[in-house]
């Protein structure tokens, strides 16, 4: 049993029950499954209509008879609601909670009941099986980590218990990438997991050295890219230089694991946990090939109504055997920060730099960062009122901690921030000479 599974059980998350339910769902034939999913989506909608003040307030005459007539929700609906967004049946101090939007710039506090969270991990365990790994396989983790001492050592302790070694993405200089390589030579990692952009930088480093990572670490089986979409060009260089398959994981912390690429490179939706819809520009179900908007319903979450929830990502679809499938995810592309010293860092660094102002000020709605030149960064902030100077000074201090000293930081309060062509708000705009 992995530490994660043991930890879930000790904290009261019904992991064994979730695994059993997932296996039951997977055993259904296609007709049985479609009936189950149809009933399940209406069951969760009815539950929140009866038990969640926020969701009930969206309707004046009861739930409509057609699913398509239910409103499409966005993060701003939860942010701006004066109604209670948590079900009356749950105490928010006794359920799973998290804070999302480090990558999108939209602060959002979410909640899941313990069964729903257990179903997420049961699904992840199931998808890992297809690549010969499990929740306790040795992981090389290209990820961020808090640099403040208390949080830092807590994360390092969790890494030890979870059988993973973290490769922080704040410094991606050649010297640091060489140290990463030495770690792969010393440890028997089963898989690589982390931010696409940082993994690609490491792959390019290996290419410059004419090295294949699996030759240096023969135990490797797969590389799982998350947070930022790993495009075909990225997957090609990763698979060539790592010597293992590169696959995409697509999820949203407030929803679930949404999709996972299979061994053939096809997107496998998390239909057991999430009802996924692809809408056209008018909000109707998409029936033709082309770009569409993703909308999700968390089928098991009774703590918060994640129902017909639009996260902001778009997809490219195609017809295959008269069925519309996802060909490519269009949102979620990351960038690197190149600093005056020549140091490289992942744009995910800004999640850790801005965490205090996101979680504690309560004022911030949205923000982006523009790098006007190698040493100057401009934060564009949408907020109900001015952000206190103490929070802004804290961001400046953390820029020095996570990036490097001597950077110029400017804050501009704006009324609106434009989205990318893919429909998602891009957090970081790098300087391009």
Report a brief summary of the structure.
By secondary structure, the protein is an alpha/beta fold. The protein contains 14 helices and 19 strands. The protein folds into three domains: 144 residues, no CATH class; 113 residues, Rossmann fold, CATH 3.40.50; 94 residues, GMP Synthetase, Chain A, domain 3 (2-Layer Sandwich).
Q: What's the structural blueprint in terms of helices and strands?
A:
Layout: H1 3-10, H2 15-26, H3 30-51, H4 53-56, H5 75-80, E1 96-100, E2 108-112, H6 114-129, E3 139-143, H7 149-161, E4 164-168, H8 174-186, E5 191-195, H9 196-208, H10 213-216, E6 222-226, H11 232-242, E7 246-252, E8 256-261, E9 267-269, E10 274-279, E11 290-298, E12 309-320, E13 323-329, E14 336-338, E15 344-346, H12 349-353, H13 355-360, E16 364-373, E17 376-383, H14 389-402, E18 408-413, E19 428-429
Parallel strand pairs: 3-4, 3-5, 5-6, 6-7, 16-19, 17-18
Antiparallel strand pairs: 1-2, 7-8, 8-9, 10-11, 11-12, 12-13, 14-15, 16-17
Helix pairs in contact: 2-6, 9-11
């Amino acid at each position: 049993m992995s530490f994660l599974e043991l930890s879930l059980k000790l904290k009261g998350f019904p992991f064994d029950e979730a695994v059993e339910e997932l296996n039951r769902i997977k055993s259904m034939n296609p007709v049985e499954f479609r009936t189950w999913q149809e009933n399940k989506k209406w069951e969760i909608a009815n539950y929140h209509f009866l038990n969640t003040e926020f969701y009930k307030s969206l309707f004046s005459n009861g739930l409509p008879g057609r699913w398509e007539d239910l409103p499409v929700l966005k993060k701003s609906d939860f942010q701006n609601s004066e109604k209670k967004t948590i079900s009356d049946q749950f105490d928010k101090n006794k359920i799973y909670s998290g804070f999302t939007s480090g990558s999108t710039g939209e602060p959002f506090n979410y909640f899941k009941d313990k069964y729903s969270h257990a179903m997420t991990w049961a699904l992840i365990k199931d998808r890992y099986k297809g690549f010969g790994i499990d929740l306790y396989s040795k992981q090389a983790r290209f990820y961020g980590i808090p640099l403040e001492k208390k949080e830092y050592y807590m994360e390092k302790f969790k890494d030890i218990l979870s059988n993973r070694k973290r490769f922080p993405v704040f410094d991606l200089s050649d010297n640091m990438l060489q140290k990463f390589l030495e770690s792969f030579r010393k440890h028997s990692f089963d898989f690589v997991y982390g931010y696409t952009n940082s993994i690609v930088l490491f792959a390019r480093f290996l290419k410059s050295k004419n090295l294949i990572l699996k030759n240096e670490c023969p135990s490797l089986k797969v590389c799982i890219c998350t947070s930022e979409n790993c495009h075909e060009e990225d997957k090609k260089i990763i698979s060539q230089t790592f010597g293992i398959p590169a696959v995409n994981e697509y999820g949203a912390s407030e929803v679930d694991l949404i999709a996972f690429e299979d061994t053939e490179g096809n997107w496998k939706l998390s239909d057991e946990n999430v009802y996924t819809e692809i809408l056209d520009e008018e909000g109707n179900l998409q029936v033709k090939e082309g770009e569409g908007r993703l909308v999700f319903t968390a089928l098991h979450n009774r703590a918060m109504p994640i129902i017909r929830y639009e996260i902001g990502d778009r997809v490219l679809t195609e017809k295959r055997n008269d069925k519309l499938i996802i060909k490519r995810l269009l949102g979620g592309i990351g960038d690197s920060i190149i600093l005056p010293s020549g140091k490289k860092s992942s744009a995910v660094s800004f999640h850790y730099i801005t965490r205090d102002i996101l979680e504690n000020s309560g004022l911030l709605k949205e923000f982006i960062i523009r790098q006007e030149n190698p040493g100057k960064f401009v934060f564009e902030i949408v907020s109900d009122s001015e952000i206190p100077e103490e929070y802004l000074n804290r961001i400046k201090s953390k820029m020095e901690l996570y990036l490097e000293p001597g950077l110029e930081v400017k804050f501009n309060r704006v009324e609106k921030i434009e989205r990318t062509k893919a429909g998602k708000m891009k957090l970081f705009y790098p300087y391009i000479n």
